[in-house]
Design a protein that fits this description.
The chain is mainly alpha-helical. It has 12 helices and no strands. The chain folds into 2 domains: 87 residues, Rna Polymerase Sigma Factor, Chain: A, CATH 1.10.1740.10; 104 residues, Orthogonal Bundle (Arc Repressor Mutant, subunit A). The termini are far apart.
Length: 214
């Protein structure tokens, strides 16, 4: 079967005309990606399914406004992150917000800069040696932190993009990423990952630690 180019004008016209085969192709191609992203952010299977369904409904409602300047996957995942933000806001109304004022005051100065930069663990995320450990440890990271961590490390979104999708400030994003990385590091250490191995997987952290101790 010939691979479909989802961003060519002809295919977009099919979507605008509600062509069943066109929409089936889009769902078949991107439903698994949306579900993996939602599950990776810590949502249950049921919530992931609901989010994915709402994304495709929103895509169908807004496809007429999509001009094709970006790939349709970019447009689709933009909708997805908006739906994630909406879900979190509704959840926070029920459960209450997770206060981060104390963390912000202790970790950031008045200009929003780190008082003491944290050790960096980005490279460890993709290290095969600790990949399984990290996946286990991510389960202990609170959902909002896990979501922004996923956006940054998996989707490689910029600070501006994440802040816009999540409706948070750059400082708040820094706090959330710091807390996610901190929890991961603590969990990895509890699982027995030795400092020498951390230095191999996360060279920056060793440099930061030495600088901190001098």
């Amino acid at each position: 079967m010939r691979k479909i180019d989802f961003s060519v004008p002809e295919f977009l016209d099919r979507l605008r005309q509600r062509d069943p085969a066109g929409w089936e192709a889009i769902v078949d191609a991107y439903l698994p990606q949306l579900l993996r992203a939602a599950r990776g952010m810590g949502f249950s299977s049921d919530v992931a399914q609901d989010l994915a369904q709402s994304v495709f409904v929103a895509l169908m409602e807004s496809i007429g406004r999509f001009e094709g300047r970006s790939h349709i996957r970019t447009f689709l995942f933009g909708i997805f992150y908006n739906k994630v933000s909406e879900h979190l806001r509704e959840k926070q109304k029920v459960e209450g917000n997770d206060p981060i004022d104390d963390v912000m005051e202790s970790k950031f100065d008045l200009s929003g800069k780190w008082r003491q930069p944290p050790a960096d663990i980005e490279q460890a995320v993709f290290g095969r040696e600790v990949g399984g450990m990290i996946q286990d440890c991510l389960q202990s990271v609170p959902q909002t932190q896990r979501i922004v961590f996923h956006m940054r490390e998996v989707e490689e979104m910029t600070t501006e993009e994440i802040c816009k999708k999540m409706a948070i400030s750059g400082t708040n994003l820094g706090v959330l990423l710091f807390r996610a990385r901190n929890r991961l590091r603590e969990c990895l250490e509890k699982k027995g990952l030795k400092k020498d191995n951390l230095c191999i997987a996360v060279p920056k952290s060793c440099g930061s630690s030495r600088a901190t101790n001098t």
